[in-house]
Amino acid sequence: MPELPEITALTDFLDEQLSGAQLTQLLLPSAFALKVADVPHESLIGRTVESVGRRGKFLVFEIAPAAEAREGEDSAEPLYLIVNFAKAGWLTFSDKQPGNDATAAGGYFAAQLGFSNNGSDFGITLTDVGTWKGLAIFIVREPEDVHGIAELGPDPLDPAFGLDEFSRFFTHRQQIKGILKNQKLMAGIGNAYSDEILHAAKLSPVAPASSLGPDAVERIFTSMQDILNGAVQEFSGKKPSELKPAKKASMRVHGRTGEPCPVCGDTVREVAFVGTSLQYCPTCQTNGEILARRGSSDD
Which residues form the FPG-type domain (predicted)? Predict the structure, then answer.
């Protein structure tokens, strides 16, 4: 699942390419991916992209009012085209308009968008390679009209988000990996970076949050800041096609089951759950204990 660092790099790239561009095409081969449409999606054609940004793991296109808008019409107000990539969604970007066919290399696509900017054409294809198609598109008047955005907690890289606020999350028995992944507490961290943060902090992913002392909580906070900031800097300037490989290459334990831990050399282990898994190093994180399956990483 795309997480904060790669979504940040993606939005920076798209904002640079598409700010001021006219949306010339919006093809939805089926209505499945379009979850909310406050106005018909065809009404976005001809409008200008004001900016491309991020809310948590959501990609947010701000679309300017129509040039010929009259007061009181839907076209007289800005709209937001918002994408949630879910578990297996992503996009491809090209320097030409997309075709009008309903197939894409590798299988299903959720939407195709065409843009024109200062004489240059661009195309975006939103794809989903998962068995269960979770990629979702929303066309709304305000980002907070999307339920998932309205419930988001603070951004962990927001300068206003400090250790004191972070420490308030560690007052109950939810597992600490679940704390980091809970979008209502913090927006943008998922399965991969929660594994990486806890490995760097040398803490078990299944430890109850309330069992941690102040030093351990501060260690998680520092690791979180270091890893996310480092990944954002590493991915900056990369094209969309380069971001997933870059993320995979940067992982130290996530997705590395059976490989040696880069810190201590012990074998990276996995705990599988329904539809997901976590990776950890027994020596670095659990005092050598091999974890058993425990129902859900959010328990």
Answer: 252-286
Question: What are 101's strand-pairing partners?
Answer: none
CATH number of 4-150: 3.20.190.10
Rounded Cα–Cα distance for residues 297 and 274 (Å): 9
What is the DSSP annotation of 26-59? EE-SSSSSEEEESS-GGGGTT-BEEEEEEETTEE
Q: Where are the domains of the chain?
A: 4-150, 163-285
CA-closest candidate to residue 56, choices 164, 168, 190, 159: 190
pLDDT digits (tens, 9 = 90+) for 216-274: 999 999 999 999 999 999 999 999 999 999 999 999 999 999 999 999 999 999 998 77
DSSP E strands: which ranges in the chain?
22-27, 34-37, 49-55, 58-63, 79-84, 89-94, 109-117, 120-128, 136-140, 269-273, 276-280
Phi-psi region of 286 (alpha: psi -120 to 50; beta: other; left: phi over 0): alpha
Do the beta carbons of residue 98 and residue 125 sit within 8 Å? yes
The gap from C-alpha 157 to its chain's centroid, in whole angstroms, comes to 14
- The residue ranges of DSSP E strands in 231-281, in sequence order, are 269-273, 276-280
Minimal CA–CA distance to 6: which of 82, 57, 69, 79? 57
Pick the CATH number of 163-285 from 3.90.1150.10, 2.40.50.100, 1.10.8.50, 3.40.50.300: 1.10.8.50
Q: What pTM does this model have?
A: 0.91
Q: Are 224 and 154 in contact (CB under 8 A)?
A: no
The model's pLDDT over 40-79, given as tens digits with 9 standing for 90+, comes to 999 999 999 999 999 999 999 999 998 765 444 556 689 9
Residue 205 in tokens: 């992913």
